[in-house]
Structures are given as structure tokens and as C-alpha cells.
Amino acid sequence: MSTTSTLYFRDSRRTNIETTHRINDQIRVTPVRVVNQNGEMLGVIPTREAIAVAVESGLDLVEVAPNVRPPVCRIMDYGKFKYEQKKKTAKNTKQHQIQIKEIRLRPKTGEHDIDFKTKRARDFLEGKDKVKLHIMFKGRENAHHDLGRDILNAIIQQLEDIAKIEKAPSMEGGKSMTAILTPKA
């Protein structure tokens, strides 16, 4: 009874082996058309001979076109081939996810600090992220919303070469003013 479970385990492991391409002993059809590692056609030869040629050169025999008769097999380093395929698909699927980066200011923020925050906003916009400019008002600062609007308009003017306004400066709630900038395409 334990031998059947062991055989089942071996069979389940065998099915986890690569299923996209048949390699070496997994190729059941004979004869096969063989292309060597340099891209030169070796011709139609029996599968056993093709595997022997591949093993002799220290490489694998990989079935690349199984639907044609006879199937086309290539002699190549299969591990390297799979690595390059995986690297290529990872490169193609990796795309920049746009984030909203927030820059917080106050109406009494100094000129140097505003320049520094503007530089950070420029970096974010060049990295294809959106920037939310946020000015918070506390206490008596609420009476001077015009100062906050002037700061936001100055920053927007400095960034107009690489950014466009998605949301113009406006009050949110009673204590903050925001503007949202997006990178120009």
C-alpha cells in the first residue's frame, strides 16, 4: 500500500516538470527535425540520435514546434533559455504604477523650504507620479487663505513646464487648500 502512494507521489512530481516545452526524454515522436545551437539545420534524424548529439555537446534537445510533422527540435541550454524567457516576460509586465505623492505646506512656510518642496514635486512628476499640494491652516491662519493660494500658484507656475493642473487650488473642508498636478504626457 505504501508503494502505490510513493508511485503516486513520483507521478505528481513528474507533472510539475515544465509543460510548455518537451525536453530530452520527454520527446516521444521519432524522427525529429533538428537545429543545432548555432541555428544550422542538421536535418531529420531519429530522436535517440538527436538526444545523443545534444548530450555530447552538453546541452538539451528542446521541442520548439511540436505541431508540425516532423516536430522541430533545437539543441540549446534549456535552463538559460527559461531564465531569459522569464526575464523578458518580467520586463514586459513591469509597468509604473501611478501614485499620488503629497507635499504638505503651511501659509508661513519659508521661501527656501518652498523651493525644496518644489524640487521634490519636480522629482515626483519626472517619475510619472501625480503630486497633491496641500496647505494646512491653523488658528488665525484661516483668515489668510489668499497667502496659501499665492503659494500654490507660485509652485504651479514653477512646475508648468512638466506638469498640468488636474485640480485647481481650492479649499477642502475649512482648514486646508489643495491642488493636484499630473505629469505632461
Biggest sheet layout: 4 strands, mixed
Query: What would you call the shape?
Result: rod-shaped
Distance between the termini: 67 Å
Task: Please identify the top-level CATH class of the largest domain.
Answer: Alpha Beta
In the CATH hierarchy, the architecture of the largest domain is 2-Layer Sandwich
Number of strands: 8
Q: In DSSP terms, counting alpha (H) and pi (I) runs of 4 or more, how many helices?
A: 5
How are helices and strands ordered from N to C?
Answer: HEEHEEHEHEHEE
Tally of structural domains:
2
User: The CATH topology of the largest domain, please?
Assistant: Translation Initiation Factor IF3
Mean pLDDT: 84
Overall radius of gyration: 32 Å
Strand order, sheet with most strands: 2-1-4-3
CATH superfamily of the largest domain: Translation initiation factor 3 (IF-3), C-terminal domain
Low-confidence blocks of residues: 1-18
What portion of residues is helical?
A: 25-40%
The proportion of residues in beta strands is 25-35%
**Structure class:** alpha/beta
